[in-house]
Known about the structure:
The complex is a heterodimer.
Chain A: E1 4-5, H1 9-35, E2 37-39, E3 45-47, H2 51-56, H3 62-94, H4 101-111, H5 118-129, H6 135-142, H7 153-181, H8 185-193, H9 198-226, H10 230-235, H11 247-257, H12 261-299
Antiparallel strand pairs in A: 2-3
Chain B: H1 7-29, H2 33-38, H3 50-57, H4 59-92, E1 93-94, H5 98-110, H6 113-126, H7 133-157, H8 161-169, H9 174-185, H10 187-203, H11 206-210, H12 219-229, H13 234-254, H14 259-263
InterPro entries (chain A): MetI-like, MetI-like_sf, Sugar_ABC_transporter
Organism (chain A): Bradyrhizobium frederickii
Domain ABC transmembrane type-1 (chain A): 71-282
Amino acid sequence: MDKTINQKAWFLVLPVFLVVAFSAVLPLMTVVNYSMQDTFGNNQFFWNGVGWFKELLDPSTDLGGRFLASLGRNLFFSLVILAIEVPLGIVVALSMPREGWTVAACLVILALPLLIPWNVVGTIWQIFGRPDIGLLGYVLNAAGIDYNYVSNDIDAWVTVIVMDVWHWTSLVALLCYAGLKSIPEAYYQAAQIDGASRWAVFKAIQLPKMNRVLLIAVLLRFMDSFMIYTEPFVVTGGGPGNSTTFVSIELVKIALGQFDLGKAAALSLVYNLIILIVCWIFYTVMTNAGVERKVQAESEPAAEPKPAAALKPVPALKPKEGVA
Amino acid sequence: MHSIPGRRLIMGLFLIFLLLPIYWLVNMSFKTNSEIVSTMTLWPHTPTLQHYKRIFTDESWYSGYINSLQYVILNTVISISVALPAAYAFSRYRFLGDKHLFFWLLSNRMAPAAVYALPFFNLYSAIGLFDTPWAVALAHCIFNVPLAVWILEGFVSGVPREIDETAFLDGYSFPRFFIKILVPLIASGIGVAAFFCFMFSWVELLLARTLTSVHAKPIAAIMTRTVSASGMDWGLLAAAGVLTIIPGALVIWFVRNYIASGFALGRV
């Protein structure tokens, strides 16, 4: 469908623009302001220029060391959970029952972890994993595995990763399931006639059709795991030591714990910039995929041509009716 | 042909994996604290409702649920009402900076809450909204409004353009067309978008905790603070956790067929 050019559409977008600008641009300006200054309390501020940024990117300073270490941990965490959740989500989506009441039941159970407040997710895994009162911790220890996420780094990491897999794999699975459902039955019949193997069907039909939703899944999972805060904070508190301190946890520690406004603001800006860049890459890939798809659809002979749809005068949005 | 060998087993194991921790939480909420600490029991041997009773009778507990619901509902109403016209504009028109604006919205959905915690605290203290449901509701708009715009844009694009044109030819003014024709047509989409706004506002803790202190404190924050103050009252904590799952579990049933398309931002 061709869109018409109409600048008055801005009036329709204006409310969204104002609301989001109020909660995004204004606070960001405060952050930029703080990032250039130092404070010793009492609302006294001193100009510090780009000092914080220099310190932030220099691993030999305290601030830089902490930031880069937490950034490394966070990237590693994001990669690990993507490597687990995406394949697992696809497998679960492929395992969905075909019809009947079980479909609805599976969907509801799958979606359940997504609707639990994030700190309760933490609480659930805390209660589940503790060696003294938790089923998981108790069973593992009874089986002879010395498991204690409070004192052992590796156990803490495993707990946080398993928790994230528990929490978010359903999202990937639900997205893939939606993609799979959009595949017409005729494709499978054609594959059957050709005698295609199960793997060939997956590779030639199902995976390409899931491309788009998988991209969204990867984007959402990367972003949300990159800014994860509440769940690990509740379970491990960033510990033992600093072993599960991710960027957001470090940031909140500096900003609200030590009230080191300048450092926190500089960290925020760099953090935001990384997110913005990754977001932009995904957005470009996504829109390009959309364009390709459109071109493909248009070049198919079956698509009926719609001439001059854009040239038709559209009476929408007359000047005085634009915004009531 | 559609599914893989052993799918029942895989699905069953995965569902058990999902349900087991939740079962443990429910199980614990019905146990007495002495049973929790002293023995390992797979089901409550001396079932008790004492934790639930405490939550429903102690105002400092149940007011948390009311506070949470207040800002969640406020946020959902604000998000949907500003997002609807914008979704229509993005779906139907091309205008100066539309793509940039769309990307800007996307980037705000992805912005880490931790970055905004402190500036929000300053901002809402300055304008006197700190510790009110409004502060949290407005703060949550930063990720919910973009989300609502995307979901609704997908649904509006599903409405054939001819319907708009016919309505305008029939002499409908724009606002009347919007309310009388478009909104009923995308009612299910509005439902899905509202569900997602509800959900993301309901599960968020960091901003909600930072922007409230006494009067508007959400249940999630009450849970974390009580634990640190009075030692570990595991049973009470578990009961409060179970009660936060219930609203989500209830609404999920109504949107079960749309969950996936909503997560795909209306683009499956």
